[in-house]
Each structure stands twice: as C-alpha cells, then as structure tokens.
Specification:
CATH architecture of the largest domain: Alpha-Beta Barrel
CATH topology of the largest domain: TIM Barrel
Shape: globular
Radius of gyration: 24 Å
Structural class: alpha/beta
CATH superfamily of the largest domain: Glycosidases
Low-confidence stretches: 7-23
C-alpha cells in the first residue's frame, strides 16, 4: 500500500475515533437469513509482560502476595478490555523462576531475594494461566535460555542457582552472568526447565527471546569483550570439530532451537513454540537495511529457523518506524514474509514502548496504528506483539483508547495452527435455558483426546444491531447469554468448540427467540 493512501486511512480512522463511532460496534451486521454466523476475524494481538528488573510486573520486588495478584489481574483486565487475545509472560529471566520450580530458584524480582519463596505460598504462573484463560487470553510462557544473572542484581544467589550447581559452565560477561551455549549440559538444563513447565502447566505457548549469545559488551577502553567460551571451543576442536568458531556458535544455538521444538511437540503437540529474534537477520537483507548483524554478533541464524519450520510462530522485533531510512518497518516485514517458506505464523514485535513523552525517541500513537495497518496489509503476516504491557497501560497520546476504539475495536481470535491439530474437534453438546429476560446455555465437550480437547467455547449471538462474539474458557459449563447494547436478547446463537491449536469444531445452532 502506498504511504499516501495509508496516511489517508490512518487520518480517517483517527477522525472516527474522536467521534466515538467505533465504540462497542458488533463485528458483523445481522441478516435475517443468517444461519451461519459470520467468522470472527483472526489476528494475533499479543503483549509481552516483562518481569526482569520489574519492568511490567510486579511493580517492585517483595510486595505482599495479594498486591502482586491484584497487579497481575489489573494487567490481564487491561489486555482483555483492549481486545488483545494473548499475553507473553516472562517466567525465567536469569536462570530463575516466576513459578514453583524443582530446578531453579525463585526470582529476586518476585520476592526480593533469589531463592526466597513467596509467603504465603502461591504460584504466579499457575495463577496467570487461570486468570488469562478466564478472560479469553492465551498465555505463552517466556523464557530467557542462557542469561544467568541480570545487570544490576547484587543480591546473594541461592544455592540452587545454576552459578552454584553448574559453576564451570557459567561465565561472567560484562555486567552479566551467562551460561555458555557451547556446553551440552547448558542446553540440556534449559530444555529440562522448559519441558517441566510444558508438562505441568496448561500454557498455550513457549516463547524465547533474542538473547542467545549475549549482545556485545565493551570494556572501559571501548574494546569489545570476547565471549569467554575457550573451554567449550577447545573441547569441540579436540573432538574433531571442523567448523570455524562463529559457525560452531551458530550451530550451538540451532541445536537448542531445533531440540526445543521437537521435545515440546513430544510432550504436548498443541503447545506453540515461538521465537522473537532481533529484527534484522543480516544487514543488506533486504538491500536497504543496516544495523546490528545478529547472525554474526548473537550467532542467531533466525532465518534458518523460520525456513526449516523449527517454530510455530515468528515474532521478529521490528522496533523501528515506518519511515526509518535503514530499518524500514514495512520493508523488513515484507522481507521476513518472503522467507517464510513453510507458512508459519509471522507476528512481528512492535516497539510500542516508544509511544512515550520521555527519552530521545518519541513516537506518536499514529506511528503504532500505521504499523498495525501495514501488518494487516502484508500477505503472510497475521498479527502483532507489543513491547511492552506497561506502554499499553500508560497509553501516552491516547494510545490505549485509539487501539481499543480503532484497530482493536472488535474481538479477534488467535489464528489457527492446523499443523498442530491433525483431527478437528467435535461439536459440543449445547442446551438452552430460558427465564424472563434471561438466557443461559449449558455446554459440554464431546468425546475428545488430549490433542482435541476444547480450549475455548466460541459463542456468537445475533442481536438487532449485529453479531457479537465471545471467547470463553472451555472449563465453563454454564454460560450466560448477555443482553445487547439496547438491552435486547439475541434471537440466534451459534456455538463452536475451539481446540488448543485454534481449530474450530462444526457449529451448533440454537434458536433463542425473543424470550
């Protein structure tokens, strides 16, 4: 789409929002002949909830448990009000845990001390999963695979911490501690930690970020500090390895990514695996792009992971403006779409935190709106992930209102991953209960396997002003049918089961009447 056309579209959208015309609109008009409910739009609308350094949650370490819970619920409520449909919740920031782990200590960012359990006892990940699903949100557990200690953390590390239990493979690098990706024991430990969460928690996805080998650090003289992996590199050479050092490092990261995808699918085939690498694969791809060479600096051959299909969704961090001369958002997005040969989900990450009134870089809200419009216009792209949740809560330049009333004015479902659902779910059993001025339904899942178990009930109801949709946790058995904007009850309801891969069952149609 040409920039001038896009500018006109964005300006028109802003004018409509200022008059409030988009608020509360149904997702489709109602026709008297409708017996098949119009499909609900499919678009990933996610946000990262960062826990490292208390960026998003909790607001500071060591808060009372009830305060921590209330803050997390407030974030999820905000996501639901904005018609987001997923949150990516950071559960491992630096070989620690925002959940009860048998392998790693409690996070300092939760309780104020590495290894100290919360009192009274609670499990933030279990709580977040349940509360997210209650609001129709997917929850993806976000892991940092190699970082062992974040900059600025000066507290005592637990005896359970990897720097104590596997000291020989943990290296100091600048202000960080880092697990050496060249050590097989490191890859095995990270895989074990992630699979433990996959098996014990009802998460919808596993997510790893852009920190593979660390971003380059420099000493006081400005010289780049080499990553201290001489021991693992020498062992590789003694074992007959023939790759050069850079290629060997890339292979180490490839091994982890491929193994995670494979092992997650063995444990729970429906759990999605996603990666959010640095947004530039290499300078010159596409031709106009300049910037950090992640292939050379982070040893992340992210294009290969996408081309090989070692993931279910790909969220490159495209944290640059539409008009950036050397990192153009639409040019990078188009290039990544062209590399997506296996048709995996492409959900770019957006620098929503730049919509702010502080710092050197300050985007207006229209920049972010324009990026969403461009993503929708790009064949092969299916949504956006916002960094970070605090930026959406802060809502500088009326960003939150503009999203909620504009591009996110109606509900959308996470795009289906049919390669994860070889057998479609069966239609549920639905019965309707009437009372004066009220309707409710009892919904029961048909026979199913673990892979085809419903995650959601998709309930679409036809009101006088149009079709409205709700996505409800399939653990709900009795579902009230709310009145519409004019106080009217629907005359027709359509119910589908939606499995964990986002695949819909055949529809069950219920004539509700005016009751």
């Amino acid at each position: 789409m040409r920039r001038t056309q896009l500018a006109v579209m964005v300006a028109a959208l802003m004018a409509a929002l200022s008059q409030g015309r988009a608020q509360g609109a149904p997702y489709a008009p109602a026709l008297a002949s409708d017996r098949d409910a119009p499909p609900v739009p499919r678009e990933f609308r996610g946000a990262w909830i960062a826990t490292v350094d208390n960026i998003d949650w909790p607001s500071k370490p060591g808060l009372p448990v009830e305060t921590q819970k209330a803050e997390l619920v407030a974030l999820l409520d905000h996501a639901a009000r904005m018609h987001l449909n997923a949150v990516i919740f950071q559960v491992r920031t630096a070989a620690d845990a925002m959940y009860k782990s048998p392998y790693e200590p409690w996070s300092v960012y939760l309780t104020g001390q590495n290894g100290r359990a919360p009192v009274p006892a609670w499990d933030p990940l279990s709580f977040a999963v349940a509360e997210a699903h209650r609001r129709g949100l997917e929850l993806h557990a976000w892991f940092n695979p190699y970082r062992a200690r974040y900059r600025g953390d000066r507290g005592t590390l637990s005896r359970q911490h990897v720097s104590r239990t596997m000291a020989s493979v943990v290296k100091r690098y600048g202000p960080y501690l880092w697990m050496d990706p060249g050590e097989p024991s490191v890859r095995a430990h990270t895989t074990k930690v992630i699979l433990d969460v996959v098996r014990r928690y009802d998460i919808d996805g596993v997510h790893i970020d852009d920190y593979f080998y660390p971003y380059p650090e420099r000493d006081r003289r400005g010289r780049e500090i080499p990553f201290p992996d001489n021991a693992s590199w020498s062992r590789y050479q003694r074992g007959g390895g023939r790759l050069d050092r850079d290629a060997w490092r890339r292979q180490n990261v490839d091994i982890l990514v491929q193994a995670l995808y494979r092992e997650i699918k063995v444990a729970k085939p429906w759990v999605k695996f996603g990666v959010s690498p640095f947004g530039i694969w290499r300078p010159g791809y596409p031709e106009s792009v300049r910037g950090l060479d992640a292939w050379d600096a982070l040893y992340a051959d992210s294009r290969r992971w996408l081309q090989e299909g070692w993931l279910d969704y790909f969220a490159p961090q495209l944290y640059w403006a539409v008009g950036a001369a050397q990192q153009s958002y639409p040019e990078l997005l188009e290039w990544w779409a062209s590399e997506n040969r296996r048709g995996r989900h492409l959900w770019p990450g957006n620098g929503t935190y730049k919509v702010t009134n502080q710092g050197a870089v300050r985007w207006p809200a229209t920049e972010l709106i324009e990026q969403i419009v461009l993503t929708r216009d790009q064949p092969g792209a299916g949504g956006n992930v916002h960094y970070n949740m605090s930026a959406l809560v802060r809502g500088t330049d009326k960003l939150t209102d503009r999203l909620a009333l504009g591009p996110y004015s109606g509900a959308a479902m996470v795009p289906a991953s049919p390669w994860l659902s070889p057998v479609s779910p069966q239609a549920p059993d639905v019965s309707l209960s009437r009372a004066p001025g009220r309707l409710s339904m009892t919904i029961t899942a048909a026979d199913h396997t673990a892979a085809t178990a419903p995650r959601w009930w998709l309930v679409r109801a036809r009101y006088g002003d149009g079709w409205r949709a709700r996505l409800l946790d399939a653990s709900m058995k009795v579902v009230p049918v709310p009145a519409g904007a004019a106080g009217d009850l629907p005359d027709f309801v359509v119910v589908n089961a939606v499995d964990r891969a986002g695949v819909e069952s055949p529809a069950v149609r219920v004539i509700a009447g005016s009751g």
